[in-house]
Design goal:
The chain is α+β, with helices and mostly antiparallel strands. Helices cover about 40% and strands about 10% of the residues.
Length: about 725
């Protein structure tokens, strides 16, 4: 209170004789304009200006406002900074923390505080007769000016050459700086540590482990024989070369990048292969990888023109750095996908910038940073890069290690295909083949039908009315087989026409892979290839060789199912209610509809499934809940999938497969993907195995005649497979 009263008297004396327009010395005016006005504008106007508000009744955007003071009295005593309340608040020399300025901010730099003291002691010259106009205020608070001032902080300055203080004998350059600093501050050096303290400190700092008895004996001998300095240097060299060094100091790096093996949330889903990142950091530190290189790998390890390889040349080390982006919390299937994306992307921005720059860049998410030279635009530039990236695993093999084997692998595959064609033709031509067909078809009669409205899959083990073998199941108890066959062909033809028409009506957009990869889709890993009808679906479990004959489309296992591959669609906004995908795969390959980059699936996150068995399926899912949201489609072999998904249901029961990468690999094949109009729309099967029978005629009006008809169709299809003209329907029929 005493300070306020004295200030009020002095304030009146200091300003009472000033006219409305005052001429000040040019040097003092220049000092105010260059050193004081920018700080007032950038740090004070938000709470103390006519254009914003006058907290505490104080305006600092004009000389009259400063003259008037605030609710507590005058703010400045011209000629006496120490007695000025404004100076006391920015120096934090007031007991009330709420009065320490800037409010809820860091204390101003010492150089700025010195400028304010000089300004006030020199008479507080202020040429501002009125509050600034909107244009003047915008110029005063321009971000470029604010950032330029904040960038003068010592931590943003480039490394500079400085004069090294004279070092004492046996001292290092660093010691000389420490000695000078101690001398400047009147400090003295404490007594030297004894040999045992030195040894413990070296071990605990560099490896985190206490020295063994043998190490203590060796160190003590060196200390006695070669002296303190030699013993320390040799021990440091040994500890730096120890694998334990990377483990000890890698712990700090892992803390900076919040290493975890789970995504947190209610069920804490496992982050597969998280250990690879931990091992990568330990290797990098033990191999003395430069810091700048390691930072680049954390941000763009997949884009480096010359990735860093392991010592044996087989592992792409650089790409592992990106794994730190996966160590984020994911909610328990959040219903707001955009909010979830903003949350985990903001966490990525926060971690990267804190770990690499020591700055809270995330504070600029909603506005320019309050204290640092980080703008709102800076934050969203980084956010945009991370938000536009797709979550996925990446293969760690360096280069294409399969390249040298591709020709031989393809040759073996072709030999298998040729051998199968010959073997199957021989099997079909055997006299007992028609009896086998009748027995095989009768076994299907007991299989339950599956509701297309409830299931995600066109179940390949359920015999449908348009399947070729269904002709034999319908023949039971019949006598007029010619009429039966005629009605069967009419039904198949009608079903085909209706399916094609209905599918066209409900389709908003079609991505057709039967002529190659559609525009905008792209492959990140592996060797994807377009295949004509007749490519083999290879089994991935022990004892399986071939699981299916595939239609035309794009597949991932042209040479081997051990190769990893991924396929991504362009980003799009859901304007329709459902999706469908006609695809096949094995080994828990995945088809995903990824909403706002959320890498998990389940509950509201539909439109995803894993593939087993190699048979073609039609995936359908209601996506109406996500209308208006950004999304993309993603197909992955199992090891590249961003998360595990539930396996398919077959015959009403979940298959008891281990949902882990299969011993013999994983693959996928896709024919088409569609966006459908309504949330209840479901794609109708549009290719029927029975279409191969439509141009045939029944030669004998009997059950044996029907079986012989199917035998003839199988031989024709196999011969087309050997020569030319093999179709998607042929592939479906033979499978």
């Amino acid at each position: 209170m005493r300070t306020i009263l004295v200030g009020r008297v002095s304030w009146f004396v200091g300003f009472v004789a000033l006219p409305s327009s005052v001429c000040f010395g040019s040097e003092k005016v220049e000092f105010f304009e260059s050193r004081i006005r920018p700080i007032l504008a950038q740090e004070c106007y938000e709470c103390h200006s006519e254009r914003h508000k006058a907290k505490g009744g104080l305006l600092l955007d004009s000389r009259p406002g400063i003259e008037a003071g605030g609710d507590t009295g005058p703010s400045i005593v011209p000629g006496d900074a120490e007695a000025s309340f404004l100076y006391q608040t920015i120096m934090h020399h007031v007991d009330d923390e709420d009065m320490r300025m800037p409010k809820q901010g860091a204390k101003l730099e010492n150089s700025v505080l010195a400028d304010f003291k000089k300004w006030i002691d020199d008479g507080a010259v202020d040429p501002r007769n009125t509050a600034p106009s909107d244009e003047e205020l915008a110029a005063d608070t321009d971000w470029d000016a604010i950032a330029a001032r904040r960038a003068q902080h010592w931590s943003f300055q480039p490394i500079a050459d400085v004069d090294v203080p004279e070092a004492s004998a046996g001292k290092t350059v660093i010691d000389s700086f420490l000695d000078q600093a101690r001398s400047d501050n009147g400090l003295t050096v404490g007594p030297l540590a004894d040999r045992w303290a030195v040894l413990r400190r070296l071990h605990f700092v560099l490896t985190g482990l206490s020295p063994t008895a043998d190490e203590q004996e060796v160190f003590s001998s060196m200390w006695d024989e070669s002296g303190r300095q030699v013993a320390v240097e040799r021990t440091v060299d040994k500890l730096l070369a120890s694998p334990r060094f990377g483990e000890r100091w890698g712990q700090h790096w892992l803390d900076w990048y919040r290493f975890t093996e789970g995504n947190g949330g209610q069920n804490d889903p496992e982050i597969e292969n998280a250990h690879e990142y931990r091992s990568y950091i330990i290797r990098a530190l033990n191999e003395n990888v430069p810091y700048d290189r390691l930072v680049k790998e954390q941000i763009a390890g997949d884009l480096l023109p010359e990735p860093r390889l392991s010592s044996d040349g087989k592992l792409n080390e650089s790409i592992i750095g990106l794994a730190q982006l996966r160590f984020v919390e994911h909610g328990f299937f959040p219903v707001d996908a955009l909010d979830e994306k903003v949350k985990f992307t903001d966490n990525q921005v926060d971690v990267i910038t804190k770990a690499t720059m020591g700055l809270t860049v995330s504070c600029a998410r909603c506005h320019d940073h309050k204290f640092d030279a980080v703008s709102h635009d800076d934050y969203h530039a980084i956010f945009g890069v991370l938000a536009s990236s797709n979550p996925s695993h990446r293969p760690l093999m360096a280069g294409d290690q399969l390249e040298s084997s591709r020709a031989s692998l393809r040759d073996h595959r072709n030999q298998l295909s040729s051998a199968l064609k010959l073997q199957w033709i021989a099997e079909v031509q055997k006299p007992g083949f028609t009896e086998h067909l009748k027995t095989f078809a009768s076994g299907y009669q007991k299989l339950p039908q599956k509701s297309a409205d409830k299931g995600h899959f066109e179940d390949h083990l359920v015999l449908k009315r348009e399947d070729a073998l269904h002709l034999l199941t319908e023949a039971k108890g019949k006598t007029d087989f010619e009429q039966l066959f005629k009605q069967f062909k009419m039904r198949v033809t009608k079903s085909k026409e209706q399916a094609v028409k209905k599918n066209a009506e409900m389709t908003v957009e079609l991505f057709d892979f039967r002529r190659g990869i559609p525009d905008g889709w792209y492959s990140r890993d592996g060797s994807l290839s377009f295949v004509a009808p007749g490519e083999l679906g290879i089994g991935v479990r022990e004892g399986e060789v071939v699981t299916s004959i595939l239609p035309s489309g794009v597949m991932s296992h042209g040479e081997t199912s051990l190769e990893q591959a991924s396929l991504f669609s362009p980003k799009f906004t859901f304007e329709s209610g459902a999706i469908s995908a006609t695809w096949a795969g094995d080994g828990f390959a995945q088809f995903r509809t990824v909403v706002q980059n959320f890498p998990l699936v389940g509950f509201a996150y539909k439109g995803g499934a894993s593939a087993l068995g190699g048979m073609r399926t039609i995936l359908s899912a209601d996506m109406d809940y996500w209308k208006g949201q950004r999304a993309h489609f993603q197909l992955n072999t199992r090891r590249l999938a961003p998360s595990a998904v539930m396996g398919p249901f077959i015959l009403g029961k979940r298959e008891r497969y281990d949902n882990k990468p299969q011993k013999y690999g994983s693959w996928f094949h896709v024919s088409e993907v569609r966006l459908l109009r309504g949330d209840k729309d479901r794609l109708l099967p549009f290719d029927f195995s029975s279409e191969v029978l439509l141009d045939l005629e029944l030669s004998e009006n009997s059950l044996d005649g029907l079986a012989s008809l199917l035998q003839e169709a199988a031989l024709d299809a196999l011969r087309r497979w050997q020569t030319d003209g093999f179709s998607d329907v042929d592939a479906l029929f033979l499978t």
